[in-house]
Design goal:
Blueprint: H1 3-16, H2 18-57, E1 62-67, H3 87-96, E2 100-109, E3 114-116, E4 119-121, E5 124-128, H4 132-136, E6 140-143, H5 148-152, E7 157-160, H6 162-168, E8 178-181, E9 184-192, E10 207-211, H7 212-219, E11 227-232, H8 238-252, E12 263-266, H9 268-311, H10 313-321, H11 326-363, H12 371-397, H13 401-406
Parallel strand pairs: 5-10, 7-9
Antiparallel strand pairs: 1-11, 1-12, 2-5, 2-11, 3-4, 3-8, 6-9, 7-10, 8-9
Helix pairs in contact: 1-11, 2-9, 2-11, 2-12, 3-8, 9-12, 11-12
Length: about 400
């Protein structure tokens, strides 16, 4: 039998058995569609989570020091933290911890009204040191950030977040204009590049930066910090730096052995590693579910093909009687399984792409389709046909033609 005639024979057989063919395709389609959707959404979620944490934390080569014990949770401000991190503590950490490249000081409040003419809002107010942009990797889109001279002179200058700028200055330039933070006038020096949302979904652009000294002495009247951010010379030395910082602060705060720290130190890189590990575990579980669904599709192929072998015993007997070899029978049934599995895989990929787009829009995730995932799904569908089609094809090839014709 030549290849063309052989191919036509396979196609005719599949057309004559539409229901069986559709059942075989459906099993693979469901499995491949599930695999495509779950792997794509899992990777998209991982990347979006990384992006959100990067937006919030800036860089991952830092250590964050907050006042109070490690049991404290939630967004901190000057109204809800212990006054345990002082300016002298920041100086000591910056000068005595060898693993540190630089340190940024932070005071912030969440309940101060900001006004410009008849417009007002309540953005988060951050008093920070002049190295904030360098340490965080943030940028200004208009104007410029304040300098170390501004910090030393307690300058009343403000850098607006993108959302705050739109709220106070929806239709005019903000640079050089005077706003009032509480009752204190500030001149707008610059506008930050939009950062989007954080991991909790809140805006990271509804804020104002002012010099930390100005915040401490002219606005908040507080001599303690809500946060210190330390940039490391070597990110791999995060744990060593934490141990040195803890020892230094415990000594400075005269904490007796066995007592709790009145501060807590966290490593964003370690936190991100934990989040990544959790995400990886979830993706593996989703992958297992998808593989199980695909495996069920393969079992459907084998079951339906075995039924087909039983129903086509007479056809097999006739073909063997007129000279068809066992190999020809085996190849025919195997190719039928592979072709149907491949077709089901293609349909599954198409459905998977559509499903991924739908879920991405529903969950507000970026649409992500990896070419290698499509290639793997295609190869998997072919592999399913081969793997689960071998046994039924072997059963067909080893059928005794005399018994088949007699039946």
């Amino acid at each position: 039998m030549n290849v063309l005639h052989f191919s036509r024979s396979i196609v005719r057989t599949l057309v004559r058995n539409k229901v069986r063919a559709l059942l075989m395709m459906a099993g693979v389609t469901i499995g491949i569609a599930s695999l495509t959707i779950l792997t794509s959404i899992g990777e998209s979620t991982r990347r979006e989570t990384m992006k959100l944490f990067k937006n919030m934390l800036g860089t991952f080569d830092t250590v964050i020091i907050r006042p109070g014990s490690s049991k404290n949770r939630g967004m901190v401000s000057l109204t809800n933290v212990e006054p345990s991190l002082k300016f002298d503590d920041a100086t000591a950490i910056a000068t005595q911890i060898p693993e540190i490249r630089q340190l940024a000081q932070v005071q912030n409040a969440l309940d101060i009204d900001v006004k410009y003419r008849d417009r007002s809002g309540t953005p988060a107010i951050f008093g920070v040191s002049s190295n904030w942009l360098e340490l965080r990797g943030d940028e200004v889109t208009e104007g410029k950030f304040f300098s170390e001279d501004d910090v030393r002179s307690l300058a009343r200058v403000a850098i607006l977040g993108a959302d705050t700028q739109k709220q106070l200055f929806p239709d005019e330039d903000s640079i050089g204009k005077t706003i009032r933070i509480g009752d204190v006038p500030f001149i707008v020096r610059g506008v930050m590049v939009a950062r989007g949302a954080g991991p909790a979904g809140g805006s990271l652009d509804n804020l104002i930066f002012i010099p930390v000294t100005t915040a401490s002495k002219r606005l908040f009247n507080r001599d303690f910090f809500t946060m210190l951010i330390v940039q490391l010379k070597d990110p791999d030395q995060g744990q060593l730096a934490i141990e040195h910082i803890q020892a230094l602060l415990r000594a400075r705060h005269h904490l007796a052995p066995g007592t709790l720290d009145d501060f807590n130190v966290t490593n964003p890189r370690a936190v991100m590693a934990e989040v990544t590990t959790m995400g990886s575990t979830i993706r593996k579980l989703l992958l297992i579910v998808a593989v199980l669904a695909t495996g069920i599709g393969g079992i459907v192929i084998m079951s339906v093909t075995l039924i087909g072998v039983s129903e086509r015993r007479k056809e097999i007997g006739v073909r063997r009687a007129v000279g068809a070899s066992r190999n020809a029978i085996l190849v025919q049934f195997l190719l039928e399984a592979v072709l149907l599995s491949f077709a089901g895989g293609i349909v599954g990929i198409v459905i998977g792409i559509g499903g991924t787009q739908f879920v991405s829009r529903l969950q507000r995730l970026p649409f992500l389709l990896q070419p290698e995932a499509v290639l793997k799904a295609t190869l998997l569908s072919i592999g399913l046909g081969l793997l689960f089609g071998v046994y039924p094809a072997w059963r067909a090839a080893t059928t005794n033609p005399i018994d088949a014709l007699r039946d």
